[in-house]
Structure formats: C-alpha cells, structure tokens
Design a protein that fits this description.
The structure holds 2 protein chains of 2 kinds. Chain A is an all-alpha fold. Chain A is built from 15 helices and 2 strands. Chain A has one domain (24-362): ABC transporter involved in vitamin B12 uptake, BtuC (Orthogonal Bundle). In chain A, a hairpin with a 2-residue loop joins strand 1 and strand 2. Chain B is globular. Classes of the chains: A mainly alpha, B alpha/beta. Chains A and B meet through helix 1, helix 10 and helix 11 of A and helix 2, strand 6 and helix 3 of B. Chain A: Belongs to the binding-protein-dependent transport system permease family. FecCD subfamily.
Chain lengths: 369, 263
C-alpha cells in the first residue's frame, strides 16, 4: 500500500497526472460538472409546474423567436415563465448558493463541520430582523422603511444575523480557541431568544401580516418577484464575491488561529470579513425566503467527501451544489402536493435532519464536541 | 538575530513569565528546557507574537510586535505542540499550507514539488495521499514539521536569516525520528538560520544545542553552553531531583544515549 503510493507519487509528477494527495484536478472537474448540472436543472425548473410550458418549446422560442408554423410561447405561458418561474428560479439559485457558501465559511471560521447558520441561531437572528420590519415597518420602524425602501427587509435581516454572529463568536471563542460545545449551546440560547422576540412580534401582528409571516417562517420561494431579487440579489452576490479571497485564509485557519497567523494570514481581518459576509448572505436570504434549513450543512459536507476541504474549491462548488439542490427541493415542494405547494423549508428539513444525524453517527469519534 | 529583553507574560492576574532576556544568533540552535509549568511554552508564544507581553522582542532588528502577519511569516515558522484537525485534509494538503503566506525561498519552478521534498526530509515519503487524521501522533507531528519547513525552506533569504520556533518537536517521536528531526534543526542552523526549540530530553539537548536556556518558575535560571549549564546543582535546583551529570549506570543496566548514534 505504502510502496504503491511512493511509486505513484514519484511517477506521477513526470507524466503530468495528478500528484498523490493533491485533489485540485478532481475538484476543478467537479466544479465544471456541477456548473453543467445546475444549468440543466435551471432549464428544467422553468418547465416544471402546474402549467405545461415545455423545455423544448422554451428553447425553440429562444432560438427562433416566433416564426410561422412554429408557435412561440403563448401569452399565458410567457407570463408564467418570465414573471413567475424565472424570478423564482433566480432567487432559488441565489438563496441556495448563499446558504451553502455561508455554511462552508462558518464551518471554516469555527473549524467545525457542524457549524451552520441555521443551527447556531444566525438565521433566527436574521429572521427577527426581518419580522421586525414586516410587523413594525409601518409604525415604529417607518423611518427605516422610508429610507431603505425594498432594501429595508434584507438590511434588517442582515443586522439581526450580524449581531447574532458577533455575540456567538465572542461567547464561544476564548483566546483564539473556539469551544464547539459552547458554540452549539450558545447558538441554541441565542436562537431561543430571537424566537421569543419574534413570537412577541407575531403576537401583535395583524391578520394580513400574520399570513405573510406564517408562510415565510417555514421558508418558501413562492413569493419570488423581480423586485425582491433587486433588493436581496446584489447583497448576496456581493457577499459571495468576497469569499474567494477568504479561501486560503480559511484553509490555514483549519490549523488553529495561532498557526494561521504564523502562516501569514491576517486572522482578525479574515474573521471580521467572514462574519460580515455570512451575516449579509444569510440576512438577504432569510429576508426573501424565510428560514430554509440544512442546506448550509449538507452541501459542504457532501462536497468535502468528494473533493476534500480545500476552500478554494469547496466554496465555489458549494455555491453551485447549493443552488442546484435548492432548485430540486423547490421542484419537489411545488409538485408533491400540486396544485397546492409545500413550503420548501419542510422539504429541506425532511432531508437535512436525517442527514445531519447520519453525520453525527458517522463521525462520532472524530467530531470534537 | 532573535532578541528578547525583559519579557514578561501574565495570563489573568497570574504572572507566568518574568523578565526573561534571551538572544539567539543566526547559526545557533537554542534549547529551552525546564520542568512542566515553568513557562517554556508561554515564553515561546510571546516570542512568536501569540500572547501579549511586556518587554521587547525583535527579529533581525525589527520590533516583532510591529511586524504584519505576512512579514513575520517570511522571517520565521512555528511548530506547535500538537495540531488537531476537524476536516479531512490529506497530508500533502496540510504540508502545502506552509506555503500560504510566507516565502519558502525555493526557485520559481520548484514550488510544486516542495511538499514532497519536505515530506521526504521528515521521513514521510509516500504519505502525501494519506489522510492526516488517520496518522499516529508522531506522524502528525512530522507532517506539521514538514509544513513548517515548507514555509522557511531556505534558512537565509535575501541575506536575512530566518528562524524556526519548535515547541517540543520530538516529544512524541521514536528515537530514530528524534535524531532525524534534531538533525534537520541543526542543519537549518548550520546553513545560517536560527532555531529555538523547547526540549525535554536533556541528553538530546546536550548533544544538539549551542545554547541552553533553563526556565524555572517563569524565570531564566541559567543560560549558556551545555557544559556550563548542565550541572548537578542546577538540575537539583530546577527539576527538584538529585541526578548526577555524566554518571554511568551500573554495569548490568543497559542504557542507550542519542550520542552513541553511528552516523
């Protein structure tokens, strides 16, 4: 076994095949495959649903436009595709990417595969911010909504997420060492406090707000509109755009904060940027789609098994797979009880919960609690 | 040159290290020895900027506290006592992290193969594809050393000497690998770098160190060449047990010293 590896490592370099222990080639291939799969999933998502606008018809209309003898999309189909399904798909991809990448970044930051914005209360904090705007937007928080317009909701969610993450980090980290038990327990406490305050707001909400809230709290892409995308999209894209610059630093951070610093990583700055980016991405996602759980833990974990934990590849791959999985979950949520639809948070929790248990059982010896 | 003047470290209200002066010149291997809890690791952490301290630490004449992380990383590399990981990195991926921010100092085309060369130096040839988490403690420690070597592969860069800070580099190793690792450290110093190592084995220390700093209750109890420092009196005072330096055991008791290694 060892002899084989030696031969492999020596012979490999000359022939230009991958070097033993170097998974970057495999990772790049996986990223390319995921990009293609995402494109196909997105195309088919446009055609899934109660109306029967077909993928073929859609492509034909893109390629040839409306030509005689080749019916373009009917008016009704066109509205369904461009004003209902397309924004929903774009939002699904943005939110899926945001959730998965935030999970990966948080896991890197806390040096633990169990850290997830949903599990440690960050989503709940963001939710509190969002609910505040929904319920109090016309009264107490009117100045905020007047000032920020459609950005008020994502901004408030971002604030709630940021505050929760900062408290969490300071509670769980002592002298550069993060206690995972403390982190998870503090996350539960913070989540409970945010939920309690959210509960108060729900209690004082009126009937119309209540209907908005209920669906939103379970997590759903059903309310996707181009307007919402215009509010949350830029924030998510900006947050995701910072993550490639964190990748090397997060890799070094796996060895501990002191060692990362000895390796030349500006650890404090990295932590601040990571916390703000995660809070922004989660805040914006929660603002438009509510609490969709487990994407942030399932996606990076699966990818680490396949391509390893190197964040230079893990982060972009997480974005693609997160987007892809959320589109699939959304397809399930709108077809499984058609013509009604299930909130997507229920679908991701139903799949993610057992998956999370499986990680715990599998890694019982390895995960340091 | 590494120069520490009147370095003191307090954690909470407890003073762990008081007023330590310490100088390591390029070409030297300095060993820090002392009983458990005497402040060795705390002092090393102050030298590497991990802990806040009072006093002065300078590297090649520059105030260590004012170096940016990437500047410090190009002057010195640090090996901690042990490193646990939660993610499934391969050995090669870990070693390559040594090239994150510092400057290894190899020629442009040789960087790609540096992890393999560093692994070969610590006697882990062929381990590149293994998972770090599946290795034994001693093997993990050698992987970390290979990573540290990658960071400052050339002991002198741009005319500036560079340094290795090693916290108990051989404590979990078998005798063969203790010798290999200590030879790497001595070789690094011989080629113009400087090494600071916390050691527990007094025989290895006597064999390899140019300078021994003995710490006792947070203070420097003695410093100097091995012959001057390792005396019966000092060992009794510092370690609290009566040992005789250079005494040979009774004829029927086997003993194996690293000094007896045949090159």
């Amino acid at each position: 076994m060892v002899d084989e590896t030696i031969a492999g490592a020596a012979g490999v370099q000359e022939s230009g095949r991958p070097v033993s222990g170097d998974r970057s080639g495999r990772a790049l291939l996986a990223i390319a495959v995921l990009a293609v799969v995402l494109a196909i999933t997105a195309l088919f998502s446009l055609t899934w649903g109660a109306s029967d606008a077909s993928a073929l018809g859609l492509v034909r209309s893109w390629l040839f436009g409306a030509t005689p003898g080749n019916e373009a999309l009917s008016m009704r189909d066109s509205v369904i595709v461009y004003d209902i399904r397309l924004p929903r798909i774009v939002m699904g991809m943005l939110v899926g990417a945001a959730l998965a990448v935030s999970g990966a970044v948080m896991q890197g930051l806390f040096r633990n595969p169990l850290a997830d914005p949903g599990l440690v209360g960050v989503s709940a904090g963001a939710g509190l911010g969002a609910v505040s705007v929904i319920v109090l937007g016309a009264t107490v928080l009117a100045p905020l909504t007047a000032l920020l317009g459609s950005y008020a909701l994502p901004f408030a969610a971002f604030g709630g997420g940021l505050l929760t993450t900062i408290i969490l980090y300071n509670v769980a980290t002592r002298q550069g060492r993060t206690s995972i038990a403390t982190m998870l327990l503090a996350g539960i406490a913070l989540g409970a406090m945010a939920m309690a305050l959210t509960g108060v707001l729900v209690y004082i909400a009126d009937d119309r707000q209540l209907r908005d809230l209920t669906f939103w709290q379970l997590g759903s892409l059903a309310g996707a509109t181009w307007l919402k995308i215009a509010g949350a999209g830029p924030i998510i894209i900006l947050a995701l755009a910072t993550t490639p610059f964190m990748a090397k630093g997060l890799n070094a951070l796996a060895l501990g904060e002191a060692t990362a610093s000895h390796l030349g990583v500006p650890v404090q700055r990295l932590k601040y940027v990571a916390i703000v980016a995660v809070s922004a991405a989660i805040g914006a996602s929660v603002a438009v789609s509510g609490g969709i759980g487990f994407v942030g833990i399932v996606v990076p974990h699966l990818l680490r098994l396949a391509i390893g934990p190197d964040n230079r590849y893990l982060l972009p791959a997480s974005a693609l797979l997160g987007a892809c999985l959320l589109l699939l979950a959304d397809a399930v949520s709108r077809t499984i009880v058609a013509p009604a639809e299930l909130p997507i948070g229920i679908v991701t929790a139903a799949v993610g919960g057992p998956f999370f248990l499986w990680i715990l059982l599998r890694k019982r010896g390895v995960v340091d609690l | 040159m590494i120069e520490a003047r009147q370095v003191s470290v307090s954690i909470g209200s407890t003073r762990i290290v008081s007023d330590v002066d310490f100088i390591v010149r390029p070409g030297e291997l300095a060993a820090i020895v002392g009983p458990n809890g005497s402040g060795k690791t705390t002092f090393l952490r102050a030298l590497t900027g991990e802990l806040a301290y009072s006093g002065q630490v300078s590297l090649n004449g520059r105030d260590a506290a004012k170096l940016k992380p990437w500047e410090a990383a190009s002057i010195r590399a640090v090996l901690p006592q042990s490193t646990a990981l939660s993610f499934p990195f391969t050995v090669r991926e870990i070693v390559k992290l040594g090239m994150t921010g510092g400057r290894s100092g190899v020629l442009a085309g040789e960087g790609d193969r540096l992890p393999e060369r560093a692994l070969a130096r610590v006697d882990l040839e062929g381990f590149a594809g293994r998972f770090y988490q599946e290795l034994s403690g001693g093997e993990q420690q050698r992987v970390q050393l290979a990573r540290v070597l990658c960071q400052v592969w050339a002991p002198v860069l741009d005319g500036q000497p560079r340094y290795l800070f090693l916290d108990e580099p051989v404590s979990s190793l078998d005798i063969k690998h203790q010798l290999i690792i200590m030879n790497i450290a001595r070789d690094f110093a011989r080629r113009g770098g400087g090494v600071v190592a916390i050691l527990h084995d007094l025989n290895l220390t006597a064999m390899y160190a140019d300078q021994i700093c003995v710490m006792h209750r947070g203070k420097l109890a003695a410093a100097g060449a091995p012959q001057a420092v390792l005396t019966d009196d000092l060992i009794e005072k510092v370690f609290g047990c009566r040992l005789r330096v250079g005494a040979i055991p009774a004829a029927n008791v086997p003993f194996v010293l690293p000094q007896s290694a045949v090159a």
